[in-house]
Amino acid sequence: MPKILIIEDDTAFCQMLQKFLTKNDFVVSISYSIKEAEELLAKSTFDIILSDVRLPKGNGVTLLPQVKRDSPATQVILMTGYAEVKTAVNAIKKGAFDYISKPFTPEQILSVIKDALNAKVMEPKASRHSSKSNNRQEKQAGFLKGQGEKSKKLEQYVELVAPTNMSVLLTGESGTGKEVTANAIHQASKRRDQPFVAVDCGAIPKEIATSEFFGHVKGSFTGAIDDKKGHFETANGGTLFLDEVGNLSYEHQVQLLRAIQERKIKRVGSTKEIELDIRIIAATNENLSDAAEEGEFREDLYHRLNEFSIEVPSLRDRQDDILLFADYFLAKANSELDKNILEFSDETKRILQDYDWPGNLREMKNVIKRAALFSETETMFPNALAEEVIEGANKHEKANFSKSDYEKELILRALKQTNFNKSKAAKLLQITRKTLYNKINQYQLNV
Ligand SMILES: Nc1ncnc2c1ncn2[C@@H]1O[C@H](COP(=O)(O)OP(=O)(O)OP(=O)(O)O)[C@@H](O)[C@H]1O
């Protein structure tokens, strides 16, 4: 049985977690401080260390170097509060396996422990994650909560709607994290112990879509060699996530609407009705409301799906979080590629912030992983980045630069016009005197 050490100063929480994990067939030791943990670590080894970040007299990260040195196979998972995400991301850079934000659900903690144990079995580290980095399960494994305004709003919406049974329509550009958000809603709902089934509606061939959604019985059509459950039945009790829902054919839109309204389905070739208790979350990166108005998407289905809508923001609208996400993906890339890149150079940071990220988080994840592969130093310099990212960012910078030239020109003109009277010039420019002084300093105007 795998051995786990919990390091957590909240004694009640620690004991509760110990009880829960023991019930789930782990051998669990606990310590309420770093000192106690060190004593236990001197006596025995553990498969997993589950440590709070903030502990009296130190934090969970301080133990990492020692653990990695004395027992490299031990995986460290950090438990963080909201504000400690950055520390946790840094800890991943130093070799922690992952972090989990408090409060978490029993499934979430079991899932991250399972991942950590699997990663161990699959040593060396480079093969920790499947190379098919886009498979659906992996998409759900890592989730970083941003800290900027847009990210907080997104999270508020998730928290607000999760406990209800409302259908949710997630809109947003490709790669913004709609599926990850759908999963977060499921995990925060009462259905979290039940299945979360994600279906890419754009990827199902039209001819087999009915059977894919509703299942079939043996012999109902050529090729139906066995009874088969459809996605609805598999998701029963839980959440069905319909990705790219705008790609459904008219016929399948009708079938879906009926299933959602009647809360019953029949497998293809069967007369037996199956009762459904399903929460639907749909996602689209096109404007479904326009499509409904133009008759390309059934309006009644659109309203059924859109009981609550959430727009998942593009990465360029999450400026405050760009470097946080970049750090996170760098940490992931380090662990997947067995690299040890500690930071981005200032110019690399500037490029990451100036680039537009048309492919959003998915693009950033790929760009950083590729750049990590090319980087040979502990600091990532721009030459590791793809050409198009650098060019894209520089175009942006030029635009900014010309904007600043223009601004400088305006200020000089206003000053001349007002005979270098700064109060009058500020008034003319419709800015405060203080801002004008700042700008004069910024542009080093000799006035
Ligand atoms: N909050 C997040 N934290 C960490 N990784 C994230 C987050 N959001 C998205 N990602 C990563 O970005 C990638 C794209 O996410 P996801 O598949 O959820 O986007 P999507 O909007 O559903 O894309 P599409 O429109 O193409 O279906 C995934 O690899 C996912 O792991």
Automatic annotation (TrEMBL):
Keywords, sorted A to Z: ATP-binding, Nucleotide-binding, Phosphoprotein, Transcription, Transcription regulation
Matching PROSITE patterns: RESPONSE_REGULATORY (PS50110), SIGMA54_INTERACT_2 (PS00676), SIGMA54_INTERACT_4 (PS50045)
InterPro entries named among the record's database cross-references: AAA+_ATPase, AAA_lid_NorR, CheY-like_superfamily, Homeodomain-like_sf, HTH_Fis, P-loop_NTPase, Sig_transdc_resp-reg_receiver, Sigma_54_int
Domain Response regulatory: 3-117
Sites bearing 4-aspartylphosphate, chain numbering: 52
Presence of keyword GTP-binding: no
Chain residue ranges for the region called Disordered: 123-148
Domain Sigma-54 factor interaction: 144-373
Record bears the keyword Ligase: no
Highest taxon listed in the record's lineage: Bacteria
PANTHER family: PROPIONATE CATABOLISM OPERON REGULATORY PROTEIN, TRANSCRIPTIONAL REGULATORY PROTEIN
Entry protein name: Sigma-54 dependent transcriptional regulator
Organism from which the protein derives: Flagellimonas yonaguniensis
